[in-house]
Each structure stands twice: as C-alpha cells, then as structure tokens.
C-alpha cells in the first residue's frame, strides 16, 4: 500500500466497487478497502433491470450471463387475501435485453465486482478495516486502516468515497443521517431448499406476498442451487412488541400467509433465522470537501421493490464521474463531489413514494390500475428503476388523490 492516492474508496460492496472501478479506469490511483473477506454474506439478492447500464459500463454483463444466477423477468404481488396480480413483465414494457436481470447470491456478486475493480486498475485490499477518517478542518484528507496483519497505518488521498453501507463511517461521524419517520421497519428471513418454483421465465420472478392482517409482507426470491430467500418485513414495533424470538415471529407471520405456506410446504429450511433493522434514511449532505457518500452510506430505502443494489451502483457511478471530473480540474470541493446528488435524490423520492403507497392501507394498486390502465407503464418504470427522467413522476399526479394526505405532492 502506498502512502497516498488520488482516491480512497471505503467498502467493497456494489457502491464502493463501482466507484473504485470507474475512478481507476479513468487513470487515477485508487485504493479500495473492504473489512471482510470475500465471499462474505450480505442481504439484498434481487436486482432490478436498470442495474443493466452500470453493470454494462463496468464490463460485468458477460460474467453475469455466464453465471448460475437465475434470470429475473418479472415481479408479482400477492394480496393479503391471496389474490395474485398479473406479473409485471419488464420486457412487455421495454422489449430489450436490459429488461432481464438476475437474482444473486451477494457474496458471489460482490466478489465479482470487487475483482473487477482490481482488474480495472484499483488497488484492492480485503480484510482491511477503516478505523477512522482523517480530517484537516472540514476537509477529509485520509484514513486510518487496520490490515489483516493487525497493523494500523494512515493513508492519504485527494478524495475519500464512503461506501461502507449502513455503517456510513463519514455520515455517522458527521451526524448527517435523517431517519424517515414513517418507514421504521424490521426484516426477519431465512433460506429454503426446494421451495416451489413456477415453470419457465416465471421461475425467476420475485414475489411480494402480503400477510392476511396486512401488517407485513414476505419477499420470495429464487436463488441458484434450488435455494429460495424468504423474509418478512413489518414495522419495527409490530415485529417486536409483545412478540417472542425472531424464530417465533417468522413462524407466526408464515401462519398469516397461506400463499407462502403453499410454496414452502415441501421445502427444507437450510439456514438459521436472520434479522435486520431497516429504517429508511437519507443524509443531509451527500458530500463535503474531499469526501462523498455513496450507496447505503448515503441513503437507504425499504427493500420492497429491491432497489438497493441499483441505487448503490447508480450512486457509485454518478459520484465517480464527479470525482473524475473534479480530479481532472483540481476541484474536490463539496459542490463538485456532490453535484450528482439532487437529481439522484429526486429518483429516490419516487421509489420511496411508491413504497409508501404500498404500505398505506387505503391504497390498492389493482384498483388504481383498473381506473388508470395507462399508468401501468409508469408504475413499471418505478419498479425497474427508470426513475431519473422528466416524466418518471407523472404517475403520481393521478395517484395523489388516492393517497393519504401526508404522501401527496
Ligand atoms: C432486509 C433487506 C433486504 C434487502 N433486499 C434487497 C434486494 O432484494 N435487492 C436490492 O437491490 N437491495 C436489497 N437490500 C438493500 C441492499 O442490501 C443495499 O442497498 C446494498 O447492499 C447497498 O450496497 P452498498 O455498496 O452501498 O453497501 P454494502 O453492500 O452494505 O457494502 C458496504 C461494504 O462496506 C464494508 N464496510 C463496512 N464498514 C467498513 C469499515 N469500517 N472498513 C472497511 N469496510 C467496511 C462492508 O463489509 C460491506 O462489504 C436489502 C436490504 C435489507 C436490509
């Protein structure tokens, strides 16, 4: 490891590896450090179609096409009454290659991205923990790292990109995180072998199944090797108050979801129960002098529409472009490094609004689409992540009157 770089990227998840790959590829000396050793476990297995563009720029499509990851062509919703929606087939909306995506084991997927960053010229270190970000006044100037040998060293750079996920080292230190008051959720999940799969292209679909009391919903994500990821999400209060251990909560929620029971009836649970608190949040500032936040380190939305990896890749790419431009012209100010964020946040707000529409008990997607069939395309746009164009918010003009007051506008 050298003493200084143009750019140091913290965290080898999708956001960090993307930012490191592109900055290195542009010819700037780039260090990427990851605390864990790959392949490490991570939740967030279902991709959405708009990941295609960043994955293409990273040069990852070939590897994904050759992988064992199941292909995902659609998402389907099952109501609390057990009624299954018509699948949202992404290629009916846009019949191009980019409409098919994948269901991934994150350990393998993230390792591929990390190795790709190394292949494109970034210096990549696993088992290297960021202990502290070093500041001179308000400017980030370097990091203190602990390597697998236990030694602590300081390394300096013109720009620090924070992709440390929910830990958000810089965001936490500066206290810039704002928790979304209405989306304080918790997830409890596990993995099943040989759970039911539909034939053909429907076999790779993500299912979102609501529980009978409408207080929770299950994700059902088919992975390779006949494993299915199954998890339930609900308000943190609902999931914890007066409830037993997570194992009991999971079993009680399964009992409230006959459509899920049918699918896992002949399956074997092959992992323990896992739990994550998943409060949606954003950061008051995306960047400062010499630093920028990407991915979950910047913002996190409820996983209902599987948007997390897409937002990590997109923010990693957009931030990298601002870092590259800034390094070229010798401007690594907050304004330069955070230039990408306002447009990005507008797209995030559209996904968050559709998340909140789903949770609002007075709104029903089926009825809305019966009244406004022409909005199917607009909703599919949000579901695939196509949220950064001018017309992406048009669907909400007609949806607003159907939503509770707090969500309108
Ligand atoms: C319950 C749940 C379900 C989800 N389901 C989906 C889904 O189906 N689809 C989807 O797209 N998204 C999903 N997400 C969201 C998704 O997991 C995240 O949005 C995504 O992983 C963010 O990528 P990232 O690169 O920003 O952060 P991460 O993937 O979290 O990567 C951050 C990396 O930083 C490393 N790190 C942390 N601290 C340090 C340190 N001090 N030093 C060095 N390295 C460090 C970590 O080890 C990690 O590898 C889900 C999230 C939750 C909670």
Describe this entry's structure for a reader.
The protein has 409 residues and is an alpha/beta fold. The chain folds into two domains: 4-71 and 102-177 and 282-345, FAD/NAD(P)-binding domain (3-Layer(bba) Sandwich); 74-92 and 180-279, D-Amino Acid Oxidase, Chain A, domain 2, CATH 3.30.9. It contains 15 helices and 18 strands. It has helices spanning 14-25, 51-58, 61-66, 90-93, 106-119, 169-174, 236-240, 246-255, 258-264, 308-329, 334-337, 341-359, 365-371, 376-384, 395-399; strands at 4-10, 30-33, 71-72, 74-78, 88-89, 101-102, 123-125, 129-136, 139-146, 152-162, 177-193, 206-210, 216-222, 227-235, 268-269, 274-283, 287-288, 291-293. The strands form three sheets. Strands 1, 2, 7, 8, 9, 10, 17 and 18 form an eight-stranded mixed sheet that branches. Strands 4, 5, 11, 12, 13, 14, 15 and 16 form an eight-stranded mixed sheet that branches. A hairpin with a 5-residue loop joins strand 12 (206-210) and strand 13 (216-222). Helix 1 runs parallel beside helix 5 (106-119) and helix 1 (14-25) packs parallel to helix 10. The longest helix is centred in the C-terminal third of the chain and has 22 residues, at 308-329. The protein is globular and about 60 Å long. It starts with a strand and ends in a 10-residue tail after the last helix. Bound molecules: flavin-adenine dinucleotide. Residues 10-16, 33-36, 42-47, 129-130, 163-165, 167, 169, 187, 276, 278, 295-297, 303, 306-310, 312 line the site of flavin-adenine dinucleotide (FAD). Flavin-adenine dinucleotide (FAD) is lined by residues 10-16, 33-36, 42-47, 129-130, 163-165, 167, 169, 187, 276, 278, 295-297, 303, 306-310, 312.
